[in-house]
Amino acid sequence: MNLILFGPPGAGKGTQAKILQEEWGLPQLSTGDMLRAAIAAGTDLGKRCKAIMDRGDLVSDDIVVGIIAERLDKPDCAMGAVFDGFPRTIAQAQALDRMLEGRGSQIDAVIELKVDDEAMVGRMETRVKENPGSARPDDNPETLRNRLGVYHRNTAPLLEFYRGQGKLVTVDGMAPIPQVAAAIRAVLAGLPAGAAP
Ligand code: AMP
Fold this sequence. Notes:
By secondary structure, this protein is α/β, with parallel strands linked by helices. The chain has a single domain (2-115, 168-195), classed as Rossmann fold (3-Layer(aba) Sandwich), CATH 3.40.50.300. Helix content is 56%, strand content 12%. Helix 2 packs across helix 3 (44-55) and helix 6 runs antiparallel to helix 7 (141-155). The chain is globular, with a radius of gyration of 16 Å. Adenosine monophosphate is lined by residues 9, 31-32, 35, 52-53, 56-59, 64, 85-88, 92, 138, 147. Residues 9, 31-32, 35, 52-53, 56-59, 64, 85-88, 92, 138, 147 line the site of adenosine monophosphate.
């Protein structure tokens, strides 16, 4: 089963992807985490992406499609995966459809975590205050506002793309974490038998 967790920065995609990974054994494929790992390892790819990520802009489609293609060929993705922070553009979504089709697979559901922007700024500030060590270079109010703008301009159009494919389901991302997880579980329970993990 292949799922996409969809929503603006701070919506809780990573938190819910980790719960899905624990409950269903589906690996979390976070392009943000992969890019941060490349930066930490000092690779050429990391060096090319760092300034772009620090500003909160999108790295090129070719780069993220390339790292996802490589990751999908790992054995732990054989039963599917949870995509977190990918795709973020129509071109990435089309490339993902082609990659999965080439592997005899497809996206089964796209789960939108619906939240409001102002609450996302508050969430980030609370997270940084409570746990300053976890702050990322792009965790500051100005960069977050840019990331939210990029989300609405480049990424939100994907909602229509997936609605058109009949795959979009929206859950209330403002609810407490366990409630969001329960809503996602209910979505999975409603999928056709072949897609269920
Ligand atoms: P995230 O951890 O998902 O918020 O991603 C952090 C940053 O990594 C983003 O602000 C982008 O600069 C970059 N990034 C992550 N995923 C993608 C993607 N699918 N397309 C383009 N840039 C991405």
